[in-house]
TrEMBL record:
Residues 187-378 form the SRP54-type proteins GTP-binding domain. Belongs to the GTP-binding SRP family. InterPro entries: AAA+_ATPase, FlhF, FlhF__GTPase_dom, P-loop_NTPase, SRP54_GTPase_dom. It is found in: Cell membrane. It comes from the Bacteria. It is a peripheral membrane protein. Its main location: membrane. Keywords: Bacterial flagellum biogenesis, Bacterial flagellum protein export, Cell membrane, Cell projection, Cilium, Flagellum, GTP-binding, Membrane, Nucleotide-binding, Protein transport, Transport. Necessary for flagellar biosynthesis. May be involved in translocation of the flagellum. The keyword Transport applies. This is Flagellar biosynthesis protein FlhF.
Length: 383
């Protein structure tokens, strides 16, 4: 690993130097304030010491020039004793030492502190404000902005359009690194769970219509939502419009019966009651109902109108029920879509669909990286 130290006024000044000397893949390991100059201890100026590093390329092996026996003896004698294993970070790297790992753990915290508005080039300040308004977490903001600062350096002539294109490319890249692939399996039932008021029933109707009208599949519906007034009637209305069968269940035994009744269907979509996710009894009831998880794909439905902190609590409270996918609704009812990126970055649950209106079956979109980047940057279209 190559290390290099810079004495600068601020991080923005150091970034183009780091890129020039160590390349765009370099990482900032440490920063500290130091005093320089002055005369016999007086009139010193406070500066910033920045230490950066880049992984060294493994050296190419030289062709053997000794006799085979002598070369083998030298090789045997020079093999070092393997060091004791150390706890590696997520992107395990054999070149890192224990001290460097501890330094790397503080990188994101440092980046969040250094990527403040007054440290950014003027060309990136509108992007920073956009990410703030979209409620992208500080951790993700700092990663996007640091990468872009290394890319553009201090170029004063970068246009707004160029910044926008570069930001979209960086967000798409970030999603590609963190977005999990949906588990490829052939479930008998796709079940939708989630708190009250997130739009599960309407979303199920959209997906049912899409599967029926666009993919030509035989679709069946099941609902266990006997808790909410008129919930069964709402889904029955959709089933009548689409001319597809529906079953009502309230127990695991009922679910087996309903599946037998709908055996001729290619796929079954199941609605569940939306209740207070903080009530343990609700989670326990869902677990009992969905006991045979090998037959069921579970989609957690969340509304983008909720605060991100509440979304995290919902996911954490549903952890005992294995969630296969996330489906996000009401994108059209919020002015900030950064939670989509936050969820992909922080959780290993694939985000598959984003619902953006009440129209059945049109207002539901496949969650591609490009679409998500558009939403995060404040664009409403799918171009």
């Amino acid at each position: 690993m190559r290390l290099k130290t810079y004495i600068v006024q601020n991080v923005s000044e150091a970034l183009p130097m780091i890129k020039r000397d160590l390349g765009a893949d370099a990482l900032i390991l440490n920063t500290k304030k130091v005093k320089t100059g002055g005369f016999i201890g007086f009139f010193q100026k406070e500066r910033l010491e920045v230490t950066a590093a880049v992984e060294a390329q493994p050296k190419k092996k030289k062709a053997a020039s000794k006799a085979p026996e002598e070369a083998a003896a030298v090789q045997k004698a020079s093999v070092p004793v393997p060091p004791a294993p150390i706890a590696a970070p997520e992107d395990s790297n054999p070149y890192l030492t224990g001290d460097l790992i501890n330094e790397l753990k503080g990188i994101k915290q440092f980046m969040m502190q250094s990527m403040q508005e007054d440290h950014l080039p003027a060309s990136l300040k509108p992007l920073n404000q956009c990410l703030n308004s979209q409620e992208v977490t500080k951790e993700i903001q700092s990663e996007i902005l640091a990468k872009m600062m290394l890319t553009i350096g201090q170029q004063p002539d970068v246009s707004v359009a160029q910044i926008h294109r570069m930001a979209k490319t960086e967000i798409v890249r970030l999603i590609g690194l963190h977005q999990q692939k949906p588990v490829l399996k052939d479930p008998e039932i796709i079940c939708f769970i989630g708190p009250t008021g997130v739009g599960k029933t309407t979303t199920i109707a959209k997906i049912a219509a899409d599967l029926l009208l666009r993919e030509g599949k035989k679709v069946g519906l099941i609902t266990s939502d006997t808790y909410r007034i008129a919930a069964v009637e709402q889904l029955k209305t959709y089933a009548g419009i689409l001319n597809i069968p529906i079953q009502v269940v309230d127990s695991a035994e009922d679910l087996n019966r309903a599946m037998a009744e709908l055996a001729a269907c290619d796929i079954i979509l199941m609605d569940t009651a939306g209740r207070n996710y903080q009530q343990k009894q609700y989670i326990d009831d869902l677990e009992a109902l969905l006991a045979d998880k090998n037959k069921i794909q579970i989609n957690l439905v969340l509304s983008l109108t909720a605060k991100y902190e509440d979304m995290k609590k919902i996911i954490d409270n549903f952890q005992t029920i294995k969630m296969d996918q996330l489906l996000l609704t009401k994108q059209d009812e919020t002015s900030s879509s950064g939670a989509i990126l936050n969820l992909i970055y922080h959780y290993s649950i694939p985000v598959t669909y984003i619902a953006n209106g009440q129209n059945v079956p049109d207002d539901i979109l496949t969650a591609t990286p490009e679409l998500i980047a558009n939403f995060v940057l404040g664009e409403d279209d799918n171009d």
